Amino acid sequence: MLTIRDAAPADAESIAQLTTQLGYAVDAATISVRLARLSGQRDQLVLVAMLDGKVAGWLQAHASEVLESGFRVEIVGLVVAEDCRRHGVGRELVKRVEQWAASLGAGTVVVRSNTKREESHRFYPALGYAATKTQAVYRKRLG
User: Fold this and answer.
1) Do residues 80 and 42 lie in contact, with contact meaning Cβ atoms separated by under 8 Å?
2) What is the pTM assigned to this prediction?
3) What span, in angstroms and rounded, lies between the C-alpha atoms of 73 and 43?
4) Which candidate, 48, 61, 51, 53, places its Cα nearest to that of 12?
5) Which of 10, 81, 139, 141 has the most C-beta neighbours closer than 10 Å?
6) Is residue 78 within 8 Å of 28, Cβ to Cβ?
7) Rounded distance between C-alpha atoms, residue 3 and residue 89, angstroms
8) C-beta of residue 38 within 8 angstroms of C-beta of residue 71
9) Exposed e or buried b for every residue in 104-113, given b needs 16+ CB within 10 A?
């Protein structure tokens, strides 16, 4: 049975393992600190999908007011365990973020996906998302 719930501190280890599947090496202690920072913030949503008693996926979204495009929700992270894909886990997580966005009054949900994630480029259009632009991402580490 598939259920979706808010992420809890006890989920840190499972979230870390799934995040590693996404290609980002991170440990449970780091995830725990990040979850604590996000906890209780009205503009942040972190969900886990439970399938047959185990964490099968997670999603993080945040709401923000953007000068050029207005109030929106952005999915900033979504991963489903490799052995749980094609069971509706991702679809249900996205459905829940869309409900959250609507409850906040956001008219748009945005998601960015690395060009190398071919499955994502089939998944999101199947849910009604349209590609709107191609961009480069620049990063500068501070400190």
Assistant:
1) no
2) 0.92
3) 9
4) 48
5) 81
6) no
7) 9
8) no
9) eebeebbbeb
Q: Are 136 and 114 in contact (CB under 8 A)?
A: no
Whether 63 and 103 have beta carbons less than 8 Å apart is answered as: no
In SS3 terms, the chain reads as: CEEEEECCHHHHHHHHHHHHHCCCCCCHHHHHHHHHHHCCCCCEEEEEEEECCEEEEEEEEEEEEECCCEEEEEEEEEEECHHHCCCCHHHHHHHHHHHHHHHHCCCCEEECCCCCCCCHHHHHHHCCCCCCCCCCCCCCCCC
Domains belonging to the chain, first-starting first, are 2-126 (3.40.630.30)
Q: Which residues contact 72 (CB under 8 A, 6 or more apart)?
A: 63, 64, 66, 101, 106, 107, 108, 109, 110
Work out whether the CA dihedral 87, 23, 77, 45 comes out positive or negative.
Answer: positive
